[in-house]
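Example record used in the benchmark description.
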Amino acid sequence: MLKSQELHRNGTGPHASGEPHPRSLTMRVAFQGDRGAYAEDAIAQIWRHAVEAIPVPTFAGAVHAVHEGNADACVIPVENSSIGKVEAGWSALAAHPDLRIVGETLVAVRHCLLAPKGATLDGLRTASSHPVALIQCNRFFETHRWIKPGKSFDTGGAAREVAESGDLSRAAIASLAAAQRYGLCVLEEGIQDQRDNHTRFVAVVSQRSQLWRRTHAIRGATSVDEDDPKQIAEATRELLGQIVERNSLEVEEIVSVLFTVTHDLKSAFPALAAREMGWVGVPLLCASEIPVEGSMERCLRALVQVEPRAPRPLDTHVYLRKAIALRPDVAVRD
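Model output (structure tokens):
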């Protein structure tokens, strides 16, 4: 972190509180189950960016992790096309009314019969899975009566346990992803009663966090040596590029941008450089700063309003070149 004693009379100098640089921007998302659970598909569909998925044994545990701040969000199943309402999911949510639902997705549920290498369908004696998954496969057990259902806390967990046991008489009912994760063979695929089986998951965050907000504003500033169109364009491209990179933004997530320049910059509009970057569908506006005596010269600022596809932490300030002196507390060394 850069240090500077320089202050500027423009209302954007370093905070007296010494505001720390934001923590890791990786979203921590809790889910019930083990690796390979269908909840991981829900996480991938809601968050297109890389997240840290945190497996916990129960729905209540996933929700509690968000309530206690040990996770930024969690995904909870609330409805299935075969059995209807997922009561355990709703009960876990009801226990923490301070949480907010911020998104949802439908996950296709295609159950597979998984077993260790060398196992055969005739040689199986048990098939374990989450109780809900077992109910969704009633027809399979009716036509394979020598295979007895066994309850497990999760589909992914059932697959892991079968893989660890190496018992050729044991199988698990889980996803194809679980088979790949734990090195199991797929003896049968699509054994659920309904071909079009899907589960609705909701994404939940804490009311105390700012993650439930749909729109966020990201500030940035930079400087140029001369009032030159090429320098203004280059500085604008660098600033916007850093804002996008540090926040893992997509252009479609940008709502609008307000540019301001100090009174000594008159040769070019920063918005032109943004248009040349491909931001043709983003509303842009340029304005001139109030010429307060003692404020930084040849400075260009941007206020970028964004609406992320899914809630996640954002690195809200990007200050470059001489403008680092405006906010040394959030500056990052290259």
